[in-house]
Design a protein that fits this description.
Elements: H1 7-28, E1 41-46, E2 49-55, H2 64-74, H3 80-87, H4 92-95, H5 103-110, E3 114-117, H6 131-138, E4 142-145, H7 157-164, E5 168-171, H8 175-191, E6 195-202, H9 241-252, E7 256-260, H10 261-267, E8 284-288, H11 299-302, E9 308-312, H12 319-326, E10 330-333, E11 336-337, E12 340-341, H13 343-352, E13 357-361, H14 364-373, E14 378-383, E15 407-414, E16 417-423
Length: about 425
């Protein structure tokens, strides 16, 4: 018969969870600021008090562990709640202490402390030295990590070094949440290809678009349609304002956005990140345009500022290609079959450019081609409580020979809409 847990052990487990939640929240503050590195947050605790915390940004160079150690040197210990409340009011610059960590100061502030971190501390030299050695030198006695680093250069070696130095290591607290934060990095660091997420919005009868008052003929054969009622612009949105805000958040968390020329010609979108939140590099807008039909007067072309790339099968030295380049648009010819670019080649090229995450926002044709090519890792579909009531753009002709099943499904509500999210590929290869 198991002995009942003591109040002390229960409170220790609860405290571990609170501090790990804080480390995850700090890590998430690195959205759009860390790529091509992972998002990492760290909290240093001694005698139940937070003595230092921080998160990594790529331009800040230092890893979260070092930021937390430096913070411990710079400020006295405070009760957890007070420090958390104050830390959330920091801007990015003040949340990342400057200066150089001294061994003497670090040892005094961190000796006997516990470090909570969402990702295994690194043990190799890259742009920085190994964090494991800094933690050992600082006298940290315990490390609680949510997950091992998927980077083959680390992958458990950091934990091994810490244990060899006598540091207690605990792994797995809030692992699911940590894996979600690190999934794009996990895909890229092993395969050098980005995590591709297909986003779509559908009516309850499976349509991607609502009737447009200007469309009086079908897209095929010119057959006349009955006149459609005039619809105000705001009523042509399938998804709710809350869903559209969530899509902006998804764009902010992505390195690149991929769409097709059909969407551009039909909707003339901007496809920008309009959250207003800071990001290290601009969202790369990518258009699949096999015949270079992108209008020079489109919103995309007119707003190009070293953030618009067109993949095509057309000749790179054609008059249209030269015109697009003069407008500041990158034109890249890729391999393919006939007039169709190879989507796998496109994804590989984006990976070479250190794009860790790609959001696919397109119509039925490109979505179906992407699914058939096997480049989609994850799907998020927003369902609106609306009925289009006409035969529109619900599906393309190409598809799977057999239905594919999504795994690890989650659902969330945004206004009147609900979103279903699931995975086609396990980037951690645990299935």
């Amino acid at each position: 018969m198991n002995e009942p847990a003591s109040s002390g052990s229960v409170s220790a487990v609860a405290a571990d969870a609170v501090f790990m939640d804080r480390a995850l929240a700090l890590a998430a503050r690195g959205v759009a600021l860390t790529s091509p590195n992972p998002m990492v947050g760290a909290v240093l605790v001694r005698d139940g008090l937070v003595v230092g915390e921080g998160f990594h940004t790529y331009d800040g160079v230092r890893h979260a562990e070092i930021v937390a150690l430096e913070a411990a040197v710079k400020r006295p210990a405070e009760k957890h709640g007070g420090l958390v409340d104050r830390a959330f009011r920091h801007d990015i610059k003040s949340a990342i202490p400057s200066g150089v960590l001294t061994p003497e100061g670090a040892c005094e502030a961190a000796r006997g402390a516990t470090l909570y971190i969402n990702l295994e501390p690194c043990c190799h030299t890259g742009r920085t030295g190994p964090c494991t050695q800094a933690l050992i030198a600082a006298g940290v006695s315990r490390v609680v990590a949510a997950m091992a680093d998927p980077n083959p250069a680390v992958a458990g070696r950091g934990f091994k070094q810490l244990r060899a130095a006598g540091i207690e290591v605990s792994i797995g607290l809030r692992e699911a949440e940590a894996r979600r934060l690190a999934e794009a990095f996990a895909k890229w660091i092993v395969s050098r290809q980005p995590l591709v997420t297909l986003k779509s919005a559908l009516t309850l009868d499976g349509q991607l678009v609502l009737p447009h008052p200007r469309l009086s003929r079908s897209h095929r054969g010119g057959r006349a349609r009955p006149p459609l009622p005039r619809i105000a612009l705001k009523d042509r949105w399938i998804s709710s304002p809350e869903s559209r805000s969530e899509v902006q958040r998804m764009r902010h968390a992505s390195d690149a956005l991929l769409t097709g020329i059909g969407t551009v010609l039909a909707d003339d979108p901007l496809l920008t990140d309009r959250t207003g939140l800071p990001r290290r590099r601009k969202l790369l807008r990518v258009v699949m345009d096999s015949r270079l039909r992108l209008p020079l007067r489109s919103k995309l072309a007119r707003s190009a500022d070293k953030d618009l790339t067109v993949f095509t099968r057309a000749k790179e030295d054609s008059p249209k290609a030269r015109a697009l380049r003069r407008a500041g648009i990158e034109v890249v010819r890729v391999a393919g079959r006939g007039a169709k670019p190879d989507l796998r080649a496109v994804v590989e090229e984006l990976g070479r450019r250190e794009m860790l995450s790609v959001l696919l926002e397109a119509g039925a044709t490109l979505n179906s081609a992407a699914l058939s090519a096997g480049i989609v890792d994850k799907m998020r579909v927003f369902f609106a409580p609306k009925v289009a009531g006409f035969s529109g753009a619900g599906a393309a002709s190409n598809g799977f020979q057999a239905a594919r099943e999504l795994h690890d499904l989650t659902m969330a509500q945004f206004g009147a809409d609900f979103a279903v999210e699931g995975y086609l590929h396990d980037v951690y290869r645990t299935r």
